[in-house]
Amino acid sequence: MKTTLQNGFTLIEMAIVLMIAGLLLSGMLVPLSAQMDQKNNADTQKSLSEIREAIIGYALANGQLPCPADPTAVTGVTPTAGIARTPPCTGTNSTGVVPWATLGVSETDAWGNRYTYRVTDYFADSIVSATYGSGCAPSTPPNFASFALCSSGTLNVLSAATGGTTIAGSVPAIVISHGKNSAGAYTSKGTQILPVSSSADEQENSDGSADNLYVSHTPTPAFDDLVAWISLDILFNRMVSAGKLP
């Protein structure tokens, strides 16, 4: 009578198989996490584009850029949450968060935090008490805008906080998502996420920027802010086409 041998896995072979499976699984988790980061970045970039368009649309309708909303207002509790401050928004009132309720845009980015918003004050004052900025004195003041074609923004976007080059100068307004690490962002509860990042570039985007400087560059392990701004040329072209500027 012939005996048939039954082959099977030994404990060592099983351990090797489990180890390989574990390595394969862990290798899959990193790409999935990276895919989620890419999706959140793409969604936030889309929202930034929508916010930028909404700000320009507000200017076309009202002749001025909107003032920021109070960053400390609590959503669902404070009546003024998401409402643009009343112009003129000078001094500390020129910095806050995107007035999402006024503009009809998303309150928060893909990570659940509000967008920081800064505006050059004379692009957001009232038409009747318009100021046009240093060196700008139009011979015929605009009847439908709080700024003129000779007005120039005071905000500047750099490639780095230290030794960086200017990416965009004389910007009227800027919008920032503080990214995945959320350092310096305001939440829907009106609280700021602290401490602000140790990155000098992220600190520049979270300090209220009394120096009028902001930073934008490709993401790094220390910098994940997403930055958008209102182009002076695009704003002027749209305002002229709409008959708001002579």
Keywords:
246 residues, alpha+beta
Description:
The chain is of the alpha+beta class. The protein is built from four helices and seven strands, in the order H-E-H-E-E-E-E-H-E-E-H. The protein has one domain. It is 29% helix and 12% strand. The strands form two sheets. It has a four-stranded antiparallel sheet, with helices on one face.
Q: Could you give the topology of this structure?
A:
Blueprint: H1 11-62, E1 95-97, H2 100-103, E2 116-119, E3 155-158, E4 166-171, E5 173-177, H3 200-204, E6 213-215, E7 226-229, H4 232-241
Parallel strand pairs: 3-6
Antiparallel strand pairs: 1-2, 2-5, 3-4, 5-7
The proportion of residues forming helix, as a percent range, comes to 25-40%
**Low-pLDDT windows of residues:** none
| Average pLDDT score | 90
The sequence of SSEs as H and E is HEHEEEEHEEH
Task: Please give the count of helices.
Answer: 4
Q: Going across the biggest sheet, name each strand in turn.
A: 1-2-5-7
Radius of gyration from the alpha-carbon trace, in angstroms: 25 Å
Shape designation: elongated
Note the gap between the termini: 107 Å
How would you sum up the major sheet? 4 strands, antiparallel
What is the percentage of strand-forming residues? 5-15%
Number of domains: 1
What's the short story on this structure?
With 246 residues, the chain is α+β, with helices and mostly antiparallel strands.
